[in-house]
Design goal:
Helix content is 51%, strand content 12%. By secondary structure, the protein is of the alpha/beta class. The chain has one domain (6-203): 3-Layer(aba) Sandwich (Rossmann fold), CATH 3.40.50. A 5-stranded parallel β-sheet has the order 2-3-1-4-5, sandwiched between helices. Helix 2 (41-51) packs antiparallel against helix 3 and helix 3 (60-84) runs parallel beside helix 5. It is globular, with a radius of gyration of 16 Å. Bound molecules: thymidine-5'-phosphate (TMP). It holds the Pfam family Thymidylate_kin. Keywords: ATP-binding, Kinase, Nucleotide biosynthesis, Nucleotide-binding, Transferase.
């Protein structure tokens, strides 16, 4: 049996990832949909911790290690078995998020080496076949994100400069991924959706 395709969505706050991923459930009923951090019980618990307001001021190394722990569990429990079983996996964020938030956002270039070494082990060879980067202007995305019904999370509340650095990181590294699609997410939702569909269809 051939391995399934692994499609990753990336983007800053308010880029609309979750809306488009939700819409893909209809055309892709057999795909496995998951998210990082989260997707499995242990990962959802870690997600609740890292996004909580109580974690304000968390040490940046602790934050990095929690994200990596969440990813290790998600890959072991969901992503690797699904790909091995030939299923398409759609994941809301993957390793590029950790690079752009914990290295660029947190301004910790020294984490890059550790991140690469740990990722090599925990990713178990799971690398995205396609990465769809929804590129939103941070000021626009933050306005959308901060008006979410569930309220802003710890990252939504970071200063604009943090989100500018995250975007810079995305723009710098997205080209390193095979089949990387950069979609202008400042555009109206339906236009973005057309481009997302085209990107997904071109890979599957
Ligand atoms: P979201 O996926 O619902 O946007 O929320 C996850 C938040 O966690 C988002 O602000 C980005 C942040 N994050 C990191 O800082 N590092 C990571 O490795 C991942 C996956 C997410």
């Amino acid at each position: 049996m051939s391995r399934g395709k692994f499609i990753v969505f990336e983007g800053g706050e308010g880029s609309g990832k979750s809306v488009h991923i939700e819409r893909l459930h209809f055309p892709l009923p057999d795909a496995v949909f998951t998210r990082y951090p989260g997707g499995v019980p242990v990962g959802e618990k870690i997600r609740a911790v890292v996004l909580s307001k109580e974690a304000e001021g968390m040490d940046t190394a602790t934050e990095l290690l929690l994200f990596l722990a969440a990813r290790a569990q998600l890959i072991a429990e969901v992503i690797e078995p699904a790909l091995a079983a030939g299923k398409t996996v759609i994941c809301d964020r993957f390793e590029l998020s950790t690079m752009v938030y914990q290295v660029y956002g947190r301004q910790k270039p020294e984490y890059q080496e550790l991140l690469a070494a740990v990722s090599k082990t925990i990713n178990k060879g799971c690398a995205p076949d396609a990465t769809i980067f929804l590129d939103v202007t941070p000021a626009i995305g933050l306005t959308r994100a901060r008006s979410r019904p569930e309220g802003p999370n710890r990252f939504d509340n970071e200063e604009l400069a943090f989100h500018e650095r995250v975007r810079e990181g995305y723009r710098k590294h997205i080209g390193e991924y095979p089949h990387a699609f950069v979609v202008d997410a400042d555009k109206p939702l339906e236009e973005v959706w057309q481009n997302v569909q085209k990107a997904v269809q071109s890979v599957l």
